[in-house]
Probable transcriptional regulatory protein EV207_13215 (Scopulibacillus darangshiensis), 239 residues
Amino acid sequence: MGRKWNNIKEKKASKDANTSRIYAKFGREIYVAAKQGEPDPEANQALKMVLERAKTYNVPKNIIERAIEKAKGGSDESYDEHRYEGFGPNGSMVIVDTLTNNVNRTASDVRAAFGKNGGNMGVNGSVAYMFDATAVIGLEGKTADDVLEILMEADVEVRDILEEDDAVIVYADPEQFHAVQEALKDAGIAEFSVAELTMLAQNDVTLPEDAQAQFEKMIDVLDDLEDVQQVYHNVDLGE
């Protein structure tokens, strides 16, 4: 699959260690999910999915509770989901998912992040066809064979199960996200190191050193935008 998911997660956590940026993004996402459906995760699959991801990033309980209470309180704050696609240096491909209350501001910020760092925005569909929506679930303390046996007994189909460093990573269709987690929880696995819905590139590319430095700067600028929730790309950064 070309990605070391635990290493990617550690890099993100390190980048955000001294800021509240990641918590603010989760707070917004939790609020939107809770407002669009029931504020109870057992009755709201979208909210349940966000909370599972939040656990793997150690989002404080008070951030989660505050976002849900805000949704319960009938706040009129409203956000729209928008996806932007574009190209980085040397034809690299990038997808940017946003939650925004000002589409014009967000589009301008994303376009500037591309344009000032050797990239350019594309039209809808110009990049996404080269990515597959994928559920990625990671755990420790088991082997790939153990996990395969658990999922087979639960009749849960997945795309792949790989051992990456000290973790086992399960790749599955997005619709199987909860089924995979429930099967593993029923087998006594309580903690997950990764619980993501991602856009996984069908083929990763390697950039020359100078282009890679420029690309990483562009990704950092995009990640730091207030309205950006997720950034996906097809570049092998050697993580």
About this structure: The mean pLDDT is 89. The chain has three domains: 5-72, 80-129+203-233, 131-201. Strands lie at 80-87, 93-100, 120-121, 131-140, 160-164, 167-172, 194-201, 228-233. The longest strand covers residues 131-140.
